[in-house]
Amino acid sequence: xxxxxxxxxxxxxxxxxxxxxxxxxxxxxxxxxxxxxxxxxxxxxxxxxxxxxxxxxxxxxxxxxxxxxxxxxxxxxxxxxxxxxxxxxxxxxxxxxxxxxxxxxx
Length: 106
Hints:
60% of the residues lie in helices and 0% in strands. It is mainly α. The protein has one domain (17-103). α3 (46-75) crosses α4 (80-91).
């Protein structure tokens, strides 16, 4: 079902080799739920904590790629909207960074 939803939204699906243990999820999300300065809690239950841990796992898989994309796109003067398009095309595996950036320069 998750694969079908990912396909519907043209999303990249990242799946860990093994399920995260509760202690791993707590470790991953530590610091996100500290309440201070009147801030609202990020998550209120274990389901929300699990969703945050999943999002952090996915971000960890693409953050270096996003950083490389942003450096190249910014160096070439692409707008925020153009950089977003480049990110999408590259992360989904449709194009290389250079080819996607070049589309906006021709």
